Predict the 3D structure of the following.
Amino acid sequence: MTVVLPALFQGPLAPLSGKLVLPDDPRPVLPGSALKDAARMDAVLERFGRTFGPGADRRAVTSLWSKWYFDALIPPVVVASLLLNHGFPLDLDGIGVVLDDDGKAQAIRLPHEGSRIEPEDVFERFAPLTLGHMEPFVEALSIKGRGSPKIFWSNAGNLLENLLRRMRASAMVPEAAMVQGEMLLQARGWPERRSNPLFQPVRYLGQDGIRTRRICCLRYLVPSLEICTSCPLPRNPSAIDACAT
């Protein structure tokens, strides 16, 4: 297996190794274009949902599947961008998804290894990730009653906020680049007055600064799983119903 930028993902970044691969990776992939094919995605989600046993809500299954996908995609792309000013080819139709036997995303196969970038601002830096990849991905995943787009954007934002927090604590990233990364979650809008669906996905509440998601991931709708530690839900039915819509 060929790993993109192997020298980067070492030490504390070792868990990122293997999340991005090149065309010579021998494993079969689900083409990125298939993510927009309702029938093919339904088959993947059905296979993934079987891992949770009976009673798992379709929206929750899709939400949890998106977490695995974002975990393969976002950390290596953001780390490479902020540490090395390296950009990847992320057009959704040009990538492939390596799935395990349960249908979980294990790696993203890229058409080539990308090149150095010199972005002028945060929007230029992350446009290939947010507009070129995540926006059509979320749109495709949201069809056929699989869940609200805001849930999938929240899953991405939650992961990104945690990643950026750990990167700042590591002091590995130059301050100017770190500020750009954090701005992705702090800007209320993207250029041309487009609202930012990644805006402030996490809050720190109370004197203890308890980390809390702004939007629930619907994990509570899977009977075999416990509610996550950052769940924003008060324990009442009306709040749960509102969060699921």
DSSP finds six helices and ten strands in the chain. Strands lie at 20-21, 30-31, 86-87, 96-99, 105-109, 115-116, 189-190, 194-195, 202-205, 210-213. Residues 236-245 have pLDDT under 50 and may be disordered.
